[in-house]
Write a structure and sequence with these properties.
Length: about 150
């Protein structure tokens, strides 16, 4: 059984209510994004499908921008909110539980990030949360680029 949390130097990710746990891919992706944007004056950032909130928090520690993290799954959105509140960047990171395809953005974003679906046209798991977080069944790559 995976840990219910993942500890970084400056923040902790609780993940017991999220289908997608912290993994190597998400850590490498978050570090790459944070490095690429470091030093750039990016004010408004959108994280689509935030899950635990990992990407948002990795970006928050390297920027001074405001981050809106949107998540379809209610349990994951609540957990991301709690992870944000427990972090040093709670004032700049907001969790929103909504479907990105129906959500109306309150501002224009300078940067949009998403840990995209890993699988497309593969055998789907029985767990709806895992299906939504790992497969392109609810949010496809074309959805993300339109």
């Amino acid at each position: 059984m995976p840990n219910v949390f993942f500890k970084f130097k400056k923040f902790k990710i609780e993940q017991d209510r999220c289908s997608m746990k912290v993994c190597t891919d998400s850590c490498v992706f978050g570090a790459w994004i944070a490095d690429k944007m470091s030093g750039n004056p990016i004010e408004n950032i959108l994280d689509i499908g935030t899950g635990t909130g990992l990407l948002s928090l990795m970006i928050a520690q390297k920027s001074s921008g405001k981050i809106v993290a949107i998540e379809l799954d209610k349990n994951a959105a609540v957990q991301a909110f709690e992870n944000f509140q427990a972090s040093p960047w709670a004032r700049r990171v907001t969790a929103v539980q909504a479907d990105i395809k129906r959500w109306s953005a309150p501002v224009e974003f300078d940067l949009i990030v998403s840990n995209p679906p890993f699988f497309d046209n593969h055998l789907l798991p029985e767990d709806l949360g895992k299906m939504n977080s790992k497969h392109g069944s609810q949010l496809t790559l074309p959805d993300l680029t339109n």
